[in-house]
Design the sequence.
């Protein structure tokens, strides 16, 4: 840190010039990133359902489930005359769109006519290897401006998801920026100091987007990772900047020169920021261990943005501080305070609520700890009844055509099955025809419609299609899948379909989650251990982080699985939380909770190292950081929580979980639970081999 402080001070102009040159080079790549990402892929390539899809796709040359649904409403009877001819024309036009392998229409399948006869569905199956986003874009271009058509299906939904995500990011950034600027002004009382964190957050996001754009040449990057980058990039860069700027202003007010103040700042707050950035990056990078593109690429993106945010705060910000000096502090700049005449910054002064609260808490530590713990568990309790689901077109706003088609199919086409189950029988198993006779009893499974359709495939295998009247994401749909998979199919048979997607996603995440949780926990324990040099505090941090994670999940379930709170956020009550969000929120919340814990522990340790007793060190540490952590938490929750106004439900769920967790952590955990636990532990909290007497 000494070398970094000297370099950024002596080469401040060069550092800033290099930083802005790097941003200028990165900007074109960053602007292109939305065109390089893939949409919300939560599938496990090694799962049974994905292997079934791969075999069927290889054998038939087409993807097994429809990728495009076109709802044709010709303005009259769709079964004959001009209406029927219009549907035939749409089918012919869809058949020549790039990426579409084959087409079905009411001409061959009467059930594709609506119950009232006024509309029809044209279904397109994507060619093997065709990208959904690209094909969806081609379909929209081919049929744009035709008012009697509504475009849907997974390909069109993927294209609309990408477009909606980009629009959401820009809209939310536009509205959140003024709020964040006002909050920074409230924190620092200085336009210059307030503008710096926002500028650094912009640099962090641009550099991260550029890095992801380059990485997309070598690996798939998921669309949702960009939402995570935007929220975390703003929140972390501002948080780290606040910690460093606040300490720098304290050192200046102590009467230190700019170079000395910068060295002291990086040796204390800078060291804390470095550990914090590593902590958050390690927690998010652990997601790489999941086989799902959605989670692994979000882990890559989150780890990158955490490291870049920390680097920006440790390199670019000190260079700016070296050039601006006392102008960062309005009191010094205005001559209201002489350097050396005021030892504290108003942001970190040790008085008021954050000095009184820990003293009162530590006066009755056991009752406060008990009540706080019970309150946290009560907040977490809705998680016990929570369900996990997977996204479909319902994650889109109601005005998007893919959502309209999804709703219309469910309500206007009663002859169509609610879902289909695709079953692949390998070539070396019994032939398709005998399989049809032998397993006709699958029709007796509840919810199965009629007799399964069986056909021989070009590779010698067989395909069995089972039609179902059940919602594949419901409990009944999952039970039906379990019975279908338990049927005595030949060895090597693979069962796919929408219900199988959810079942395999749940199983895959459950299989990988213990390893990911273990990696997150161990890395965080080690980082806290190294930072605070205590054997007990890492375990305290682990307990408090786990409580915060559970509370955030409980709140997420309570909000999104109930009508009134969900409607307040512009959506409807969900059948369950997206299967990927809890583990993603766990990694982010665990890392951020450790982040705030490290900052507070380091200030308590600093007070102890200067001779304060155990209780006084805790009071002093909380008093000097309470305002700062609260301000950082509020700003971070605004930066991330702003995405609760996204039109995509999965983004809302993540934003609400993280924003509320940060606020709970900064208030209940740091204000009540931590001081009461530290009081109960006393000197034992700082147990370390070879440590001196308590309070030393």
Sequence:
């Amino acid at each position: 840190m000494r070398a970094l402080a000297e370099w950024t001070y002596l080469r401040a102009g060069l550092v800033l010039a290099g930083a802005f040159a790097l941003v200028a080079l990165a900007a074109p790549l960053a602007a292109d990133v939305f065109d390089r990402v893939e949409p919300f892929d939560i599938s496990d390539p090694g799962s049974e359902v994905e292997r079934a899809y791969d075999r069927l796709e290889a054998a038939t040359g087409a993807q097994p489930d429809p990728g495009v649904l076109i709802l044709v409403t010709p303005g009259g009877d769709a079964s004959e005359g001009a209406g029927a001819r219009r549907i035939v024309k749409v089918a012919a036009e869809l058949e020549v769109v790039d990426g579409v392998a084959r087409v079905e229409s009411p001409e061959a399948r009467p059930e594709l006519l609506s119950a009232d006869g006024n509309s029809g569905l044209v279904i397109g199956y994507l060619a093997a290897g065709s990208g959904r986003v690209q094909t969806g874009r081609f379909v929209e271009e081919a049929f744009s401006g035709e008012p009697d058509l509504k475009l849907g299906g997974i390909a069109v939904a993927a294209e609309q998801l990408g477009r909606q995500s980009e629009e959401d990011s820009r809209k939310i950034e536009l509205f959140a920026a003024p709020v964040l600027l006002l909050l920074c002004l409230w924190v620092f009382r200085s336009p210059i100091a307030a503008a710096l964190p926002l500028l650094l957050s912009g640099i962090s996001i641009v550099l991260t987007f550029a890095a992801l754009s380059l990485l997309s040449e070598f690996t798939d990057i998921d669309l949702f990772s960009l939402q995570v980058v935007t929220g975390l990039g703003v929140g972390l860069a501002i948080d780290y900047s606040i910690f460093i700027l606040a300490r720098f202003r304290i050192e200046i007010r102590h009467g230190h020169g700019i170079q000395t103040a910068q060295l002291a700042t990086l040796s204390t707050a800078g060291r804390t920021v470095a550990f914090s950035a590593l902590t958050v990056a390690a927690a998010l990078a652990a997601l790489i261990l999941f086989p799902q593109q959605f989670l692994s690429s979000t882990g890559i993106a989150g780890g990158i943005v955490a490291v870049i945010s920390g680097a920006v705060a440790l390199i670019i910000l000190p260079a700016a501080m070296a050039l601006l000096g006392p102008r960062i502090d309005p009191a010094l700049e205005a001559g209201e305070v002489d350097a050396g005449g005021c030892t504290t910054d108003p942001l970190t002064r040790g008085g008021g609520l954050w000095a009184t609260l820990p003293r009162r808490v530590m006066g009755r530590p056991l009752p406060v700890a008990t009540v706080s713990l019970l309150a946290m568990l009560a907040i977490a309790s809705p998680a016990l009844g929570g369900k996990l689901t997977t996204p479909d077109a319902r994650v889109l706003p109601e005005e998007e055509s893919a959502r309209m088609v999804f709703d219309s199919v469910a309500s206007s086409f009663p002859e169509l099955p609610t879902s289909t189950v695709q079953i692949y029988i390998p070539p070396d198993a019994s032939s398709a025809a005998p399989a049809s006779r032998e397993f006709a009893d699958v029709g007796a499974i509840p919810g199965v419609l009629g007799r399964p359709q069986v056909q021989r495939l070009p590779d010698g295998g067989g395909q069995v299609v089972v039609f179902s009247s059940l919602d594949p994401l419901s409990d009944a749909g999952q039970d039906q899948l379990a019975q279908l998979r338990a049927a005595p199919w030949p060895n090597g048979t693979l069962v796919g379909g929408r219900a199988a997607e959810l079942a395999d996603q749940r199983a895959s995440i459950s299989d990988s989650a213990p390893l990911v949780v273990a990696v997150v926990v161990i890395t965080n324990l080690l980082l806290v251990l190294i930072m605070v040099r205590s054997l007990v505090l890492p375990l305290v941090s682990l307990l408090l982080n786990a409580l915060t994670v559970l509370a955030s999940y409980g709140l997420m379930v309570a909000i999104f699985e109930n009508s009134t709170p969900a409607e307040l956020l512009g959506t409807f009550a969900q059948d369950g939380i997206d299967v990927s969000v809890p583990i993603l929120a766990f990694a982010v919340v665990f890392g951020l909770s450790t982040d705030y814990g490290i900052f507070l522990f380091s200030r308590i340790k600093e007070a102890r190292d200067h001779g304060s007793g155990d209780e006084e060190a805790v009071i002093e540490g909380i008093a000097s950081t309470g305002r700062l952590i609260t301000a950082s938490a509020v700003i971070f929750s605004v930066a991330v929580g702003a995405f609760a106004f996204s039109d995509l439900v999965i983004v809302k769920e993540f934003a609400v979980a993280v924003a509320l967790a940060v606020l709970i952590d900064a208030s209940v955990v740091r204000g009540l639970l931590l001081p009461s636990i530290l009081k109960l532990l006393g000197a034992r909290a700082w147990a370390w081999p070879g440590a001196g007497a308590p309070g030393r």
Q: What stands out?
A: The first helix runs from residue 2 to 10.
